[in-house]
Amino acid sequence: MRSVTLRRERAIEGATRMRMTMLAAALGSMIALPLHAQQANMQSADANLPAQPLPADGIRTAATVVVTGEQPGPGLWLVRNGSHDLWILGTLNPLPAGMQWQSKQVEQVIANAQEVIKMRGVSLKADVGFFKSLMLLPSLLGARKNPDGKSLQQVVSPQSYARWKALKARYIGSDGGVEKWRPLFAAQELYQEAMKKSGLDNSKSVWPVVNEAIETHHPNVTVVKEEIVIKDPKPLLKEWSKTTLDDIACFDNTMTRIETDLDAMRARANAWATGDMAALQSLPPAYQWEACSSAITEAGIGKRLGFGDANQKVRAKWMDAADAALNKNAVTFATLDMKDLLGANGFLAKLKAKGYTVLAPDE
Fold first, then answer.
1. Which of 90, 134, 223, 264 has the smallest number of Cβ neighbours within 10 A?
2. How far apart are CA 232 and CA 58, in angstroms?
3. Is there a contact between 333 and 110 (Cβ–Cβ < 8 Å)?
4. Distance between CA 12 and CA 49 in Å, rounded?
5. Cβ(357)–Cβ(80) under 8 Å?
6. What is the pLDDT of residue 54?
7. Structural domains counted in the chain
8. H or E element that contains 238
9. Do the Cβ atoms of 303 and 314 come closer than 8 Å?
10. Could you give the CA distance from residue 47 to residue 123 in angstroms, rounded to a whole number?
């Protein structure tokens, strides 16, 4: 009986902690992607794909079949400083939902590594106890709703709402609760459901495999993060409930991505899973999330919490960690999102500019 009670208590505590992250989701989850992104590349992600006729509901149906089963993933980039090697795995989201990633190269590198660098990014932490958090649940549950009880139809344009209705019918269904959500959260829900029905998973991560290798071989782990601690969430929740966000562009751009980019997302996911770096780099770039980021970071509440320079701080911390590793370790392993890794402003370019040798996979 006691074990059953403990399981129930842990389940309640877990659910409460999950709800406590809703504020972080409000201010963070939709900017977790863009805080790691480079300058927006606003070209259509299907610009290099052959034109296809649209179906009656105006939504292009993705045709690319998503791979399943065990897949090797891409090869690793190598940054070298004399006899000191930093191996970097470029990650991607979303990935094929039915894929099991298993990389022998990653396991071998971690087996010989003295250090693993984890990019945690920017996060929010509500510094409250378990029972106090229970008292905040009603406010947290309302954090994603529009101020003054307005519906989506009342806050977006008729054209946007017509697009929303068609996409919602296809990917979400008849759920009426989402109609009261802020455009930013409605867009997030639509995106997640579209991923599920397209054979993709935005929560798929390389970290279960990496963590297992870390537990087996015990390298030092350096976590790169910028944490914003909220001592008292109550005033913040009250302010948030009355704040109108400039998130219409986020809403519209997310719908555009779902309408036009699903096939390209599947192709990118397949290329990553199968380790086809040539295909991965030849595909149109993934859509950037700056409009969703700005809806939070440019709002008064975001500026007051210090989100403005959070990305720069995290990037500087990662470069410091990489520099230190390349000067002290024989072998270091790290992961970075592909969009942070590549490009003129990517970490590989910055490491090369510092005089390190940078080798692409298979070079």
1. 223
2. 46
3. yes
4. 48
5. yes
6. 44
7. 1
8. helix 233-242
9. no
10. 34
Structure tokens at 111: 């087996």
Helix (H) or strand (E) holding 100: strand 99-101
Residues sharing a CB contact under 8 Å with residue 236, sequence separation 6 or more, in sequence order:
23, 230, 301
| DSSP secondary structure of 8-30 | HHHHHHHHHHHHHHHHHIIIIIH
* Joined tokens for residue 305: 């919490």
CA distance 246 to 298: 9
pLDDT of residue 138: 54
d(CA 43, CA 287) in angstroms, rounded, equals 8
The pairing of beta strand 200-201 with beta strand 99-101? unpaired
CB 244 within 8 A of CB 147: yes
The total of other beta-carbon atoms located within 10 Å of residue 358's CB is 18
Within its chain, how far is the Cα of 190 from the centroid? 15
d(CA 155, CA 182): 9
Cβ burial 190-205 (10 Å sphere, 16+ → b, else e): bbbbbbeebbbbbebe
What residues in the chain have per-residue pLDDT under 50?
1-57, 59-62
Domain that holds residue 139: 2-359
What is the rounded distance in angstroms from the CA atom of residue 187 to the CA atom of residue 174? 16
Displacement of CA 67 from its chain's centroid (Å) = 21
Here the tokens at position 256 are 């555009």
Q: What is the pLDDT of residues 96-141, one digit of tens each?
A: 999 999 889 999 999 999 999 999 887 777 666 655 555 555 555 5
